Amino acid sequence: MAAQGPLTPSAAYGMISISEAQAIVLEHCRVLPVERVPTHEAVGMVCAEAVVAKDPLPPFPASIKDGYAVVASDGPGEYPLVGEALAGTSGSLKVEPGTVAYITTGAPLPPGADAVVMIEQTEALAPGDDGRKRVKVNKGVVAGADVRPVGVDIGCGTVILHPGDRIGIAEVGLAGSVGAAAVSAYRRPCVAVLSNGDEIVSSDTASLGPGQIRDSNRPMLLAAARETGALVTDMGIVGDKQGSLEETFEKAIQDGADVIITSGGVSMGARDLIKPLLEKKGTIYFGKVCMKPGKPLTFATIEDSGSGRTILVFALPGNPVSSYACFHLVVASALRKCQGWREPSLRRVHVRLSSAAKMDSGRPEFQRARIHWESDGEGAGQFVAKGTGSQLSSRLLSALSANALLEIPQGTGEVPSGATVSAVLVDDLRHMSLQ
Ligand SMILES: Nc1nc2c(c(=O)[nH]1)N[C@H]1C(S)=C(S)[C@@H](COP(=O)(O)OP(=O)(O)OC[C@H]3O[C@@H](n4cnc5c(N)ncnc54)[C@H](O)[C@@H]3O)O[C@H]1N2
Ligand code: MOO
After folding, report:
1. What is the pTM of this model?
2. Which pLDDT band holds residue 128 (cuts at 50, 70, 90)?
3. Are 204 and 189 in contact (CB under 8 A)?
4. pLDDT band at residue 6, thresholds of 50, 70 and 90?
């Protein structure tokens, strides 16, 4: 699709709906190749090859308590001590009826014993005439008491991870238990992030010159991409010069970027150079989306003939909230799909508005909100959304502590307080406020 002319680089693009944009993007995302990763570094990745327990856990009947290994049918009484079974050791120790052995938590139950009596239910006695230590067992136990049978925790052949499962910390621990020091997982995407605009200066600029704005989008997008599990590269700030932009794209591609995220320079201005560059270097699939904020959101692919790779490019609008919303609504699910997520799409919940939400007559709007769970005191309840003040797309404070984007339909007037709307989750609800 060609732009209409140098003064209106976006004019040639028809407006599509956000759901169409999301579908187009996911259609172009390929799951990345599989790599072997040390298991503890694979947290958050998606497993590509099953991990199966080759042996049972515990591999031997193991004591659950520090105490004495006994023959349960002996019952309470005084018994000679025949030795010690300590965790990590094995020996020729045998517990005959009428004897006990000292045992520690996790140690193999000696042959002959069938239960453990915890130390609190015993007393050490003076040695008997034969010089052997003796123990008084005060309480009888049933066979199997305080013993973990072979395989009770993990049976031999148990599938710990199926292909497609996301690896969490429990999975890392379980993989460790079954001897999988490394796992096969889908590679993390390499994401290059740049900011575009002559007015943008880096965050460490102490005093701003005339017309300058500190860069909020690049640190935000680097952090957001990393949060999805991606490996990120900071490509810096690029001014409004086609040549410098192209050089930065080339460098990102040569350095192995799977995905390039830009912000700024994607709308209707004469110096909005991103769309013309993408038209030159690749294929643009959409350049305008019916959403507020985020209308000029642009998605393209670039073929790298050298490596045969297809690079996904997300050109996000410069307004900080537009970048923030577009990342959550479109880029995040793409990065998840590349990493093999079975269901990369956004998670939505229904929420009750605690105050009216103004509708936009031209576009559905994604209003930033903080949601919390409000209990009805009888075991049920619902999510309730609190707004975050002015929803200007330049006002990133509207996203401060937000955990959801309310989907406010296009229309006139307002959605009244108390109405239920759909909300896209943009944060982990573990951080949700409790009031
Ligand atoms: N004539 C029209 N003008 C605009 C339209 C339109 O339809 N017709 N759309 C508006 C919408 S909607 C958006 S969103 C913006 C997006 O424009 P760009 O992507 O080209 O962004 P810029 O013009 O470069 O910047 C917009 C705004 O954001 C500030 N900015 C940019 N980058 C950063 C950054 N990295 N960190 C912090 N702030 C940044 C920039 O200074 C501008 O204030 O276009 C509207 N215009
Ligand atoms: O769509 Mo723009 O992102 O409203 O500000």
Report:
1. 0.93
2. confident
3. no
4. very low
Q: Per residue in 135-146, pLDDT tens?
A: 999 999 999 999
- Distance between first and last Cα of the chain: 51
Cβ of residue 295 lying under 6 Å from some atom of ligand 1: yes
The angle at the Cα of 228, spanning 225 to 229, to the nearest 5 degrees, equals 95
Token pair in block for residue 238: 């690029």
Amino acid at 149: P
177 SS3 class? helix
Q: How far is the CA of 326 from the centre of ligand 1 (A)?
A: 13
| Residue 111, CA distances (Å) to 91, 163, 318, 359 in order | 10, 40, 72, 75
Q: Is the CB of 340 under 6 A from ligand 2?
A: no
Residue 83 Cβ < 6 Å to ligand 2: no
Peptide bond between residue 293 and the one before it cis (omega within 30 degrees of 0):
yes
Instruction: Give the residue whose CA is nearest to atom 2 of ligand 2.
Output: 293
The pLDDT of residue 435 is 67
Nearest in space to 73 (alpha carbons), one of 130, 13, 115: 115
Q: Ligand 2 centre and the CA of 168: distance in Å?
A: 36
pLDDT digit string (tens) for 36-59? 999 999 999 999 999 999 999 999
Question: Residue 385 class from Cβ within 10 Å (0-12 exposed, 13-18 middle, 19+ buried)?
Answer: buried
pLDDT digits (tens, 9 = 90+) for 343-386: 999 999 999 999 999 999 999 999 999 999 999 899 899 999 99
Residue ranges of domains in the chain, CATH in brackets: 16-33+187-338 (3.40.980.10), 43-56+161-186 (no CATH), 62-148 (2.170.190.11), 348-431 (2.40.340.10)
Counting ligand 1 atoms within 8 A of each CB, the residue from 198, 241, 267 with the most, and so the one to mutate, is: 267
What is the torsion angle, in degrees rounded to the nearest 10, for the CA atoms of residue 299, residue 305, residue 306 and residue 309?
A: 40
What are the DSSP calls for 254-321, one per residue? Answer: HTT-SEEEEESS-SSSTT--HHHHHHHHSEEEES-EE-BS-TT-EEEEEEETTTTEEEEEEEE-SSHH
